[in-house]
Write a structure and sequence with these properties.
CATH class of chain A: Mainly Alpha
Number of strands of chain A: 0
Number of helices of chain A: 3
Distance between the termini of chain B: 57 Å
Low-confidence stretches of chain A: none
CATH topology of chain A: Helix Hairpins
Largest sheet of chain A: none
CATH architecture of chain A: Orthogonal Bundle
Structural class of chain A: mainly alpha
Structural class of chain B: mainly alpha
Shape of chain B: globular
Oligomer: heterodimer
Helix content of chain B: over 70%
Largest interface: A-B, 41 and 47 residues
Low-confidence stretches of chain B: 570-575, 587-597
Number of strands of chain B: 2
Distance between the termini of chain A: 49 Å
Chain lengths: 116, 647
């Protein structure tokens, strides 16, 4: 069933991009960014997954050549990526807040003083 | 207890990690102790200055003795042919970009001391400033693909926050948000590309990836290449990502513009070089060369024409900045020794002259409170030193001898022309013409800026302007001196800086062996190990008279093309009222309010002839974040299709 994970992750990435491109509300843009991030996180976890593998936690001496576990590196990468995703959301939401104060709207079509 | 030998830390081996850590440590210390202005400035000065010094000390072993410094964090050296630790690897290419970054950061830090002194939240400014510097430095010195992603995120965040730093300036928040959205699409692309490569190669080490990836072929590899390529393109602001740069520069404080233009774009260029030359080793494919040269040429031409239509000083400079990055990408894409050397030379010059120009724009803003070209004028009487410094920068970017832009642009013309002769492909000769025309338009644009800011009549609002403080002039002076020196001694620059750096591009197996143990590349990759290419770098042909004759010929061709193009346009006079009014020949009627350019614009004739193009481009850059995201998605899709076809 691992193929379902891949399909889901690519679907999430595309959905996120669709949301960013098509939605004119700043908050929805931020949501799109998050969805895209989740898609990539799911992709990372899926790539590190070995069917039937155990959690990659071992005490010294316990690890043997026959041990079968999922790849720990992608999990470490995902943690980093989740933290970064949270920072993106926090920062973009704070910008949205300030934008709303200054422009009085959340519509991207009206927030375009810089153009041309 | 074992005694730690402190002298051991003075080994050059540790310098790269120190030069990264100093920035982050400085950022951290400023948060803790930065309440006092003097303490804060001292910390920033020491962090940036020491980092630059450490990198300068590495010039001798790396640039001259041709060493490569691998550094394994915690001494986790490769075991069983697998890189298990996190590594830094400093070869001549990394050091070259590292030096550029450290210089730009140091100078703009000096400038900030007086420039930012009237802002509130100064400690936060220096924290973000040092984090941006540390992020870029970490990116170029890293030997690990995932670390490169982390550093990309750090520098994007710091750059977004700094763009919005003066959040009461018109457009600052807006620019920051657009940059954040498109920048995050780029970063996510880099992460997705990284993880697809990991799935193929089960390693994140650059050297080990470079041995495995070129042997794998398939859909995954092509898609990963496209993702990483587009990711680094967003960092370098290559077309279609150029509007972000323009928005960000207009709003950010001047020293930050120096970092975004001189440092951040370099990180993107560095990423593209590492990707195309080292990881995938695709640069021997004609199709890949075509791709980079095409993107570079489009960037340089589109952005210079966008710059011509601007009426804001900093926004205009931003478009020129991307135009010059187009030159760099074009030269890098030629995949010849001369091209690579020329591209790196121009990258260095871009950092120097663009930094200088942004700092002069900052000085003008500091004294007059505006960067609108229509409201400025006659400042040469009030700010003579700034004027002279600006003229040096303008001469450099326009490629006027004896300044540095001339030498590197000349090399780029020569490299594209030689490539045309070598391959018999007339397209590369056309690129030479585009580069020449772009250079001419750059000069035209800077003549306009000089005229409308520093000469002409002094408006009443600017009468209180006076020369900026010594600290600011000193920082600008450093860059001006560097612009002149690198222009006067192109052979020295070639020999000690760009030459060794360009050579590494064609000796990939040395890079791999230095990291993974000697003989690793040959044993793993077998016959397909990247050969130690014997390409040599020709001497700089700047002063060879025959070359001047060829330049004359190319210039004549360029004039013909421009003449034919504008004639063709002039024949089709038409009636579109709105367009007519905007680029009309005569100002002074009621339409001037609507006009994009001041009445003193020198090039109204040219603009009038090209009005349809300008109008089209103006409408295209709509300023809506959805449009820019759409461009990113389209670019990504096209890159994927192209990579699938050619790789």
């Amino acid at each position: 069933m691992i193929i379902l994970n891949y399909i889901a992750s690519f679907f999430l990435i595309v959905l996120g991009l669709y949301c960013i491109v098509m939605k004119y509300n700043l908050v929805k843009t931020v949501i799109g960014l998050s969805i895209m991030d989740y898609g990539v996180n799911l992709l990372i976890i899926t790539i590190g997954y070995n069917p039937g593998g155990t959690a990659p936690i071992f005490t010294p001496g316990e690890l043997q050549a026959a041990s079968y576990f999922v790849d720990p590196i992608p999990q470490a990468l995902t943690l980093t990526s989740i933290v970064i995703g949270a920072c993106v959301t926090a920062m973009s939401l704070s910008l949205v807040m300030k934008l709303k104060e200054m422009y009085g709207t959340l519509d991207t079509r009206e927030i375009r003083r810089l153009r041309g | 207890m074992s005694h730690i030998n402190l002298l051991y830390l003075l080994d050059p081996l540790h310098f790269p990690i120190f030069s990264i850590m100093l920035y982050f440590l400085g950022a951290f210390c400023i948060v803790l102790f930065g309440k006092n202005r003097i303490v804060r400035n001292c910390i920033a000065f020491v962090a940036t200055g020491l980092s630059l010094t450490l990198l300068c000390l590495l010039i001798k072993p790396i640039m001259i003795q041709n060493a490569i410094l691998p550094y394994w964090m915690g001494y986790r050296v490769p075991a069983g042919g697998y890189a298990i630790g996190i590594a830094l690897e400093v070869d001549a290419l990394s050091l070259f970009f590292g030096l550029l970054i450290a210089t730009a950061v140091f100078v703009s830090c000096l400038y900030s001391f007086s420039y930012m002194s009237e802002d509130d939240n100064e400690p936060q400014y220096y924290t973000l400033f040092l984090m941006l510097a540390g992020g870029v430095m970490g990116l170029v010195l890293s030997g690990d693909l995932f670390n490169m992603f982390i550093m990309v995120e750090i520098l994007t965040f710091a750059a977004v926050a700094l763009t919005a730093f003066r959040n009461r300036v018109t457009g600052a928040l807006e620019a920051a948000f657009k940059y954040l959205v498109v920048g995050c699409i780029g970063s996510t692309c880099i992460l997705a590309g990284t993880i697809i490569l990991y799935q193929q190669a089960h390693t994140l080490n650059l050297a080990q990836l470079a041995t495995i990836i070129p042997l794998c072929k398939g859909t995954n590899i092509s898609i990963a290449f496209a993702l990483l390529f587009i990711g680094f393109c967003t960092k370098a602001f290559i077309v279609p990502f150029h509007p972000l740069a323009a928005d960000a520069h207009g709003a950010a404080p001047a020293p930050v513009s120096v970092l975004i233009s001189g440092v951040l774009t370099k990180s993107g260029i560095y990423g593209i070089i590492r990707l195309a030359y080292f990881l995938f080793q695709t640069m021997n494919l004609g199709t890949m060369q075509f791709w980079l040269v095409f993107l570079g040429s489009v960037s340089m031409f589109v952005c210079v024409t966008m710059a011509l239509a601007q009426h804001d000083f900093k926004r205009l400079l931003a478009f020129h900045s991307i135009s010059q990055i187009g030159y760099v990408l074009t030269a890098i894409g030629l995949a010849t020794a001369l091209g690579a050397s020329a591209g790196l030379y121009h990258a260095m010059n871009h950092t120097l002259f663009k930094g200088l120009l942004f700092l002069t724009a900052g000085a003008v803003l500091h004294e007059t409170g505006t960067t609108d070209l229509g409201k400025l004028g006659g400042l040469s009487k009030k700010m003579p030193h700034t004027t002279v410094l600006f003229l040096i920068g303008a001469a450099s970017i326009s490629g006027i001898p004896p300044f540095n832009g001339f030498a590197s642009k000349w090399l780029i013309y020569q490299a594209t022309y030689e490539k045309a002769a070598e391959t018999g492909n007339i397209g590369f000769a056309f690129v030479t013409i585009v580069a020449l025309v772009t250079s001419t338009l750059t000069l035209a644009s800077f003549v306009k800026v000089t005229q409308s800011v520093f000469f002409g009549q002094l408006p009443k609002e600017c009468e209180n302007a006076k020369e900026v403080s010594f600290g600011m002039r000193f920082a600008m002076g450093i860059l001006a001196v560097l612009c002149t020196i690198t222009g006067l001694f192109p052979n020295m620059v070639q020999q000690y800086l760009t030459g060794p750096a360009a050579k590494t591009l064609f000796h990939v197996s040395r890079y791999i062996n230095a990291m993974m143990g000697s003989g690793y590349a040959e044993s793993t990759m077998g016959a397909s190990a990247p050969e130690a290419a014997t390409r040599t770098i020709e001497t700089v042909g700047v002063w060879n008279p025959v070359n001047w004759l060829m330049l004359l010929m190319i210039a004549l061709l360029a004039i013909c093309i421009v003449a034919i193009a504008s004639k063709y346009d002039a024949v089709r006079e038409n009636k579109s009222e709105k367009v007519e009014a905007k680029y009309s020949l005569f100002y002074g009627g009621e339409d001037t309010v609507f006009s994009q350019v001041g009445g003193g614009d020198l090039f109204w004739g040219f603009k009038h002839n090209w009005r349809h193009y300008f109008s089209f481009m103006h409408d295209l850059h709509s300023g809506i974040v959805n449009d820019y995201s759409l461009w990113a998605v389209i670019a990504l899709a096209l890159a994927m299709v192209y990579a699938l076809i050619v790789l």
